[in-house]
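Handoff note, outgoing to incoming analyst
You'll be picking up this chain. Sequence as last confirmed:
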Amino acid sequence: MATQYTHHEHLGHVVFITAAAAIGGFLFGYDSAVINGAVVGIQKYFQVGPVEIGFVVAIALLGSAVGAWVGGGLADRLGRTRSMQVAALLFAVSSIGQMLPFAIWDLAFWRVMAGFAIGMASVLGPAYIAEVAPPAYRGRLGSFQQLAIVLGIAVSQLVNYLIARLAGGNVNNQLLGLDAWQWMLGACVVPALLYLLFALTIPESPRYLIMSGRTRQAREVLAEVEGDDVDIDGRIAEIQRVLRTERVPGMKDLRGPAYGLLPIVWIGIALSAFQQFVGINVIFYYSSVLWQSVGINQSDSLLISFSSSIINIIGTFIAISLVDKIGRKPLLLIGSAGMAISLATAAWAFSAARTVGDSVRLPDPQGAIALVAANVFVLFFALSWGVVVWVLLGEMFPNRIRAAALGLAAAAQWVANWLITVTFPALAAWNLPLTYAMYALFALLSFLFVAKWVKETKGRKLEDMG
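Most recent structure output, in case you need it:
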């Protein structure tokens, strides 16, 4: 009985460590969605057009691409937990900066810094979790990151809604001497400090400790996370053996016959790009603007954005429960089909928009249809591409190139995200229905791509990939 009890104790401890590391994902979700509530406020406050606002919203993503790119190297030099502390501090400082900008370019600078911190966290979390999680639970514990992201999105939508309500429903109204949108951006400092606190309490990854020659500490951490019934000397020898034979893969290892890269690397990049090209982040960055444009007031539009986040969380739980049962490929195909249909429906609904005075209105059935279609789209994305792409990227590459290929695919994802985010305000101002029709086309193409090129990885050993 005693061993059973300690086993549960260890698992509880691992779950705690994993959840702490995944707070980086929470920050990523929180920051990426917090701008949603503040966009209109920033635009009015600094009196800028759709191109400038698209630039300020999206610039954080370029910071994230750089942060993701350098995060892995920093983690090898400073250690996993120390790098998390650096990311948390950068994020906390940038939150205060975003809250008190004196010009639009100043705000853009703080957004880049926040983006860099999030990019780091987006790489550190999954890497650390994979290194401390016992193999039997790695898949489910790895899903914590995506779960934390969607929770971060939801919480930030709720906080934005509450701040807007306190300020009388308008984000440009004053609240204790600052505009409401400034408080929205400043609120990011709370999860940043929480992340810092947890990063100071969780143990360093055993792999990193062995890599830097601190075997005695590694032994203590392994005993903590894997339990005393595991052969710890054997585990240490195994990690040392892997580290000796493991060369850090570089870009030259990814070279191949297909336009300069290995075909599997292109498949990873395409999965990353399609995940963004269906326009999912438009819903999370600009949805409050979208609902205001069809005649819903500010604080209600923030509440609708919050309901989309709840649907996103439900979809993520569905994906976590199905990904090991029905497999990766069927989930992606179901998702692509559902997204294509719901996006096409939204495009049709928006085409009925009429301009009344200086505002846009959707007539009766189309307004409701647009809302339902947008939420159905979020559900299909969350239960498929939202989770499955990250699972696939973690397991589809051969061992010898995994780290480098994952870094390249993640950077491609941030760049694709940036492209969609920076172009949406201008595209929507030009022709909203056509913009949605374009996302629907990408969803259809993603279906054809998965059907032809993506192989099922369910139940296969990591050593068999490639």
